[in-house]
Automatic annotation (TrEMBL):
Main localisation: other
PANTHER family: DEFERROCHELATASE, DEFERROCHELATASE/PEROXIDASE
UniProt KW Manganese keyword: no
Function: Involved in the recovery of exogenous heme iron. Extracts iron from heme while preserving the protoporphyrin ring intact.
One example of a Gene Ontology biological process annotation: iron import into cell
Protein source organism: Streptomyces toyocaensis
Co-factor(s): heme b
One GO location term (cellular component): cytosol
Name of the featured protein: Deferrochelatase
UniProt KW keywords: Heme, Iron, Lyase, Metal-binding, Oxidoreductase, Peroxidase, Signal
SUPFAM superfamilies reported in the protein's UniProt record: Dimeric alpha+beta barrel (SSF54909)
Lineage summary: Bacteria, Bacillati, Actinomycetota, Actinomycetes, Kitasatosporales
Amino acid sequence: MADQSIPQTRALTAPPAEPVGRTAGDGITRRRLLGTAGATGLVLGATGGAVGYASAPAGAIPLTSVGDGRVPFHVKHQPGITQPLQARGHLIAFDLSPGAGRKEAAALLRRWSDTARRLMAGEPAAQGDTDVARDSGPSSLTLTFGFGHSFFGRTGLEKQRPVALDPLPDFSSDRLDRARSNGDLWVQIGADDALVAFHALRAVQKDAGSAARVRWQMNGFNRSPGATAHPMTARNLMGQVDGTRNPKPADSDFDRRIFVPEKGEPGWMAHGSYAVVRRIRMLLDDWEKLSVTEQESVIGRRKSDGAPLSGGGETSEMDLEKTDARGNLVVPINAHARITRPDQNGGAEMLRRPFSYHDGIDADGAPDAGLLFICWQADPLRGFVPVQRKLDRGDALTPFVRHETSGLFAVPGGAAEGEYVGQALLEG
């Protein structure tokens, strides 16, 4: 999980309230409302109605920084890759409908890009907006679009398919549901508000129209911004601090490891990245039978603060050679944190940006819960694959997880003003 600082909730000064009784019929749009609120965000009435949409009594509650956050759509790298972890996420894959090809795909990406631009700015969708997010700010909404291996055959663009998009090899820990894996098109949605995220999910599905049909869809979550006293690395559903060693944009080699260079191959992938998506079920009943000491030995880090078992704080360098009084390695040879270190995998590195998930309780009482693992890299054959192969050979965590779905997607660079995502591929 990405080691990212999460913005804290803060109360902002409220602008003057609109006259009581002012409604949407008075011509106040969501975009105008956001513009009026400016840096202070929206103002909610005591009953939850936004000023401009419903009456606002005295003492209205100002929108906090959670709702006020806005991510630009027109950027060099698509949004949703380097932003801090978001509280709510949806992953959805589509297959093009029978008879749909390159022309229909281009029209769909044009619709999706316009919808993403509007919703990320806090505006309603162009057509048939459901009003689900009517009272909300953008809440750091991001939409990210990618292409699967099968997309290129369906659109006659096989010659433009990247070599890096070759199917992932089989891994011994895989128990994959093929119906919930891969897909022609992939969309990642993230936001710091559940209704804003669902609003975007519904808009994307409606925009697909007759051009594409849903192949699979998954829902995830993370810690909410402001839930801790100060910014902290997130925890996964095993209770472990997860993401301490994630690469950071400030690292000198970050772009080289995560993004396709401007003059890379193929050209339409310039400034893009590759996303590996895995639904990893955590066998929590088995995990929770372990003592804290046993759990820490599996991971190689203290559960309380994420520090390596060799000592220090969370970000201290792990001493892989340190032994205890009996000569045993302090960080076990099969500890997860040891095996996944880039310097133990030929420098292989990826940006992990996952969501946790919980899809109910099985008939035997076991929770269907775990991690929607998403990692980003310039080349998955050099990033994800060597690390997963090494995990297959002896990771102490393997008995407590099950890889149930998998996908690999080529995510092109961001769209320039007046363009849509993937335009260089579909119109090149």
